[in-house]
Amino acid sequence: MEVTKLKGLSMYSQARRILRSYIFTRKTLYFAAGRKYKAIGALKPGAHALTIGSILGFFVMGTAGSASAQDTTPPNVPSGFAVTLKSDASPEPIPPDGDISACVEASEDFFANLSCPGDKTITSIDFAGYGQPAGSCSDGYSKGSCQATGARSIVEASCLNRSECAISAGNSVFGDPCPDKPKRIAIAYTCGGGGGDACPDDPNKTEPGQCGCGEADLDTDNDGIYDCKPTCSDGIQNQDETGVDCGGSCPACTPHDYCTTNPGLASEPGLKQWCWHDMTMPGTFYSNHNTATGYDLVADVECNEEQLWFDDNSIHFRLEATNPAPDFWCRNDFNMRSEVRTMPWPVQNPIGTEEWFGWRYTFADDYVIDRNNQWAMFQIHPSEIANVGGLSPQIDINVVNADQYSASSAGEIYISVSPQDSSTRNQRTHITPLAGDSLDFVVYVKWGLDGSGILKIWINGILVRNDIGLANVYEHSQWGGNAKWGIYKHPWRSESAVNESIAQGVPKLELIMGPLRQITRFPDDPDYGLNEYDTVKPKGSVNYNSTGSLYESCYDGIQNGDETGVDCGGSTCAACLT
């Protein structure tokens, strides 16, 4: 939800308090976003929390900055809302046919949520400004004296053709157009499509329903199963199906995001994917912790081959520092690495190469945050070169310890780009996964030196890092390296670090990855520059139980949960500033 700090309270909190006494039976509440398009009618006072949460979570909030009323005007309506109250008991209106204009704002370091009602989607971004945009939702926006470049294209890349999306309003995404000045994001957009008659040849139905167009939805024997004609190819979950066109009397359903492995080298152009269920693990890792899988990937483990295995359409990475005991071939005394990486090594793709990566991580049900020792879950590594030696990863997605960065909390995900200077190298995401959580990652990188490099990283559809024109290769090794996935718990090289983790109840760590997709393109490729987000993103729904605490509780302007300050401290929010 997009919130604006206002006298110590969020817009959400003020809305909830202001509107509590106004939501009664026989009143209709409209939220305006350039035009009135959605109403909530005949509500009881006890339902106000759900109602306001639903409005802020799924409906677009206008920014008219004032309230108008036909019968009465609630006091102290915060900037960001346009409210109209009516006393009639007319039927609840539905989103109109045709396009809907909407807008949203968010202050710096908060999220702007764009959403469309019904089955409409975002068809255009009419304005997007980060900095100090001029105007308002009701009067229209325009560029102000402080304006980040490329804001509109960034929002378009994340939101077009979706029913909802979230944009982080921050310098890490848009750059800092005016240092030391307060900033905000303003977005005007259009929702279109949806509505209409989905069954134009059926005079009795406008939606397929349970049995599809041309057939009534009947259950004549009252057995709970509709009397539909047998069909397993209508694109609808109906009859006794347990999924869309599968299960029950239809063919069995396969797990979501089921695919066929199509491997390839990182140096080869085009789409590669690894689906795990149709792959087998090599039988031995003797003499070297790097062993080719036979699928253009290398299994990279230290220090026991039992740390990595396939399970249906997933691959498991598991570390337990001392169990099983490290194999005789290992160069370390403790289990500290369970990864797969691309081939060949080193790949050294030239400057200008584009790469897309997409995968899902699920944290095991016994996952516990390690407050003492950090670990990496994704790296792109340039390998070693003569006269320079081992290099830090060019790109590193890692889970930090409690003291690693001044603003971080233990278990939070950070993104590091080592070729950049200290001012932009390390960036927090405000995402702290917990046991059982799943995270969808999409990474886009265009390899380049300062002025030409591009890096975009989405987690669960949120653009959490957006580098445009910043270096992501080293001056002394001007190429893109090999990608690695899994667990690299490098502090566990030392016995003292292992003992620290065990003492706080973290003797092991497990991460599960679904199908992996990678696209490599060189400048002479005819598809070079195409947006492949939807091609590589994980399929199916994502389970992320922590979203509420991270993106609501930690941004609602209230000290709640185990926070030690307003929206800071505790187990899930960012550390409070001292």
Topology record:
Layout: H1 11-19, E1 28-32, E2 36-41, H2 48-58, E3 83-86, E4 100-107, E5 110-115, E6 121-131, E7 134-136, E8 140-142, H3 151-159, E9 164-169, H4 171-174, E10 184-192, E11 270-274, E12 290-292, E13 297-302, E14 308-311, E15 314-320, E16 337-342, E17 349-350, E18 354-363, E19 375-381, E20 395-399, E21 413-417, E22 426-428, E23 438-446, E24 454-459, E25 462-468, E26 479-480, E27 482-488, H5 495-503, E28 508-513, E29 516-521, H6 533-536, H7 547-551
Antiparallel strand pairs: 1-2, 1-3, 4-10, 5-9, 6-10, 7-8, 11-29, 12-13, 13-16, 14-15, 15-28, 16-27, 17-26, 18-23, 18-28, 18-29, 19-20, 19-27, 20-21, 21-22, 23-24, 24-25
Helix pairs in contact: 1-2
Description:
This protein has 578 residues and is mainly β. It has three domains: 1-196, Jelly Rolls (Sandwich); 270-545, Jelly Rolls; 547-578, no CATH class. It has helices spanning 11-19, 48-58, 151-159, 171-174, 495-503, 533-536, 547-551, and strands at residues 28-32, 36-41, 83-86, 100-107, 110-115, 121-131, 134-136, 140-142, 164-169, 184-192, 270-274, 290-292, 297-302, 308-311, 314-320, 337-342, 349-350, 354-363, 375-381, 395-399, 413-417, 426-428, 438-446, 454-459, 462-468, 479-480, 482-488, 508-513, 516-521. Strands 11, 14, 15, 18, 23, 24, 25, 28 and 29 form a nine-stranded antiparallel sheet that branches. A hairpin with a 4-residue loop joins strand 12 and strand 13. Helix 1 packs across helix 2. The chain starts with 10 loop residues before the first helix and ends in a 27-residue tail after the last helix. The model is unreliable at 1-93, 283-291 and 546-552 (pLDDT under 50).
